[in-house]
Amino acid sequence: MNDYRVVIPARYGSERLPGKVLQDLHGKPIIYRVAERALQSQASEVIVATDDERIANVAFPVGISVVLTSSEHVSGTDRVNEVSEKFSWASQSVIVNVQGDEPLIPPGSIDQVARLLHDNPQIGVSTLYELITDSSDFVNPNVVKVVCDVNSQALYFSRSPIPWDREEFSSCASVGKASSSKRHIGLYGYRVWALKKFTRFSSSPLEKMERLEQLRFLENQINIVVAQAELPVPPGVDTQEDLERLRNELKSA
Predict the structure, then answer these.
(1) Nearest CA among 70, 98, 73, 94 for reference residue 9
(2) pTM for the complete prediction?
């Protein structure tokens, strides 16, 4: 299955760690390592989409294309859409959005997200989850949760602890392992038509409230198919502490 593309949106600016995608990770910039992982997937094409010449000038591995995009984009999703419009990709084409700060993203997870859309041709968006087993993650607003219907389509995403077991959880302190809750993994597959619609819709009320852009799809009746990740997906790099932790992990590996 190689009839899909990967686009890696990458910007230099970051509130918590400016220039993070160019930070060194054992001799290679973070964005280079992300691109390496994407090349190991079954994607037919891998593109880095950036608004910054410093990122565009990275000596990426053979097989990586770089596209300069507008600096006005609010999100990586908008940047991915600009690339799809630049190349006039067909409306049913599948794109996987791989974040530029995920240097350990498993290539198999990229393939899984694409396969979800190939297996569900009527669906516009796909993503993954893993089960939450730590009660601190369940109540952590930085850990996004998702609940799904009987067809494995997302009903809602939230920073709140959902679903809440009224009988079992008398308080957050009694949550225990919360094994029925799902942590959303921020890896997305899009059909081009869904991506175009997303960028044309205004930011939705729930999206603004939760600060979760995937809610814009749901509020505008674009379904999202969700599956449990077949492989563990390590966290990305958001802060200097994340970067140091990752450097230490790779050093000891």
Answers:
(1) 98
(2) 0.93
